[in-house]
C-alpha cells in the first residue's frame, strides 16, 4: 500500500517539500505519497490526529509548530531533545517519534555544499524561536569562536543562552547590543523574511568575507539577503539547500534509505 507523508505548517502554500519528497521517492523507488497540510494556528494537534487517523506515517513540521510538535511527541531523538524543537514526526501504532533534522541540514549545507568552514568563526543567529533553537547545538559542535543570539524579545535569547552555554561560547541579547561588533557568519533564523521584514540589525555587522544565510527561501532574494549583499556580506545563501538537506535526513528516518540531494538544488531553483 502507498504510504502517506506530509508537511504541516502555516503558511504552507509555497512549500517545495512535496516536490522534493516525490523526487526522493522516484530516485529510491519508494512507494509513497507526500502532501501539504495547512493547519490553523490553534489547530496543530487536531490536524495531526486527523492525518494519523487517515493512515499518515510521518510529518515534516514547519513554522510555527515546531515547539508544539516537540510537546506532541511521545519519544524524541537526542538531537530533538537537545534542540527543544521537533521538525520531523514518525508515527507507529503506539508511538509518535519526534526528531529534529534542521541542525544537520543547516550545518551540512554551509560546510558541505557552500564549503564554508564554521570552525573558529564568529557566528550571529538572529531569532530565538524553534528554528533558532534547533541549530545552536549543531553549530556549536563545529567549534565556532563564538555564537551570539539576538532577538526582539530579549528574554527568549537569554533563555537560549542559559540552555546552551554549558556546551560552548553562547551569549544572548538584544539587537542593539550588536552595535560595533562584526560577525563572519550571520544566520537569519527569524520568520521576518516570510512577511518581507528585516530584523533590526545595527549597521556594520558583516565582517570581511562574511556569509549571510537566511533559513527562509523564496523565488527572489529575501529582504535580509538583499540587505546583506548591500552591506558588505561576501556570500549570501537562502534556505533552499538546508531544506533539501534536512528533507533528506527526514526521508532517511522514515524510509531507512538516503537520497542524493546534489543534483536537485538547481532543479528546484528553476521552479
Ligand atoms: P520558528 O519556530 O520558526 O523559530 P517562532 O517560534 O514563531 O518560529 O519564532 C519566530 C522568530 O522570529 C522569533 O525569534 C521572533 O522574534 P520574537 O521572539 O521577538 O517574536 C522572530 N521574528 C519574527 N518577525 C520578526 C521581525 N520582523 N523582526 C525580528 N524578529 C522577528
What does the model show?
The chain is an alpha/beta fold. The protein folds into 2 domains: 3-100 and 242-269, 3-Layer(aba) Sandwich (Rossmann fold); 103-238, Rossmann fold (3-Layer(aba) Sandwich), CATH 3.40.50.720. The protein is 37% helix and 23% strand. The protein is built from 10 helices and 12 strands. It has helices at residues 17-28, 44-53, 66-72, 78-83, 102-113, 130-140, 154-164, 223-230, 240-255, 264-269; strands at residues 3-9, 32-38, 56-61, 75-76, 88-91, 96-99, 122-126, 146-150, 170-173, 183-188, 206-214, 235-237. Strands 2-1-3-5-6-4 form a 6-stranded mixed sheet, sandwiched between helices. A 6-stranded parallel sheet has the order 9-8-7-10-11-12, sandwiched between helices. It is globular and about 60 Å long. The model has no long low-confidence stretch (mean pLDDT 95). The structure holds 2'-monophosphoadenosine-5'-diphosphate. 2'-monophosphoadenosine-5'-diphosphate (ATR) binds at residues 63-64, 66, 127-132, 151-153, 156, 190-192, 197, 199.
Question: Summarize this, please?
Answer:
The chain is of the alpha/beta class and 271 residues long. Helix content is 37%, strand content 23%.
Structural class: alpha/beta
Which blocks of ≥5 consecutive residues have pLDDT under 50? none
Number of strands: 12
- The fraction of residues in strands falls at 15-25%
Give the overall pLDDT as a whole number. Answer: 95
CATH-level-4 superfamily name of the largest domain: NAD(P)-binding Rossmann-like Domain
State the domain count: 2
Task: Round the Cα radius of gyration to an integer and report it.
Answer: 18 Å
CATH topology name of the largest domain, in short, is Rossmann fold
Top-tier CATH class of the largest domain = Alpha Beta
Tertiary shape: globular
Which cofactor or ligand species appear?
Answer: 2'-monophosphoadenosine-5'-diphosphate
Q: Work out the helix count.
A: 10
CATH architecture descriptor name of the largest domain: 3-Layer(aba) Sandwich
| Cα separation of the termini | 30 Å
* Physical arrangement of strands within the biggest beta sheet: 2-1-3-5-6-4
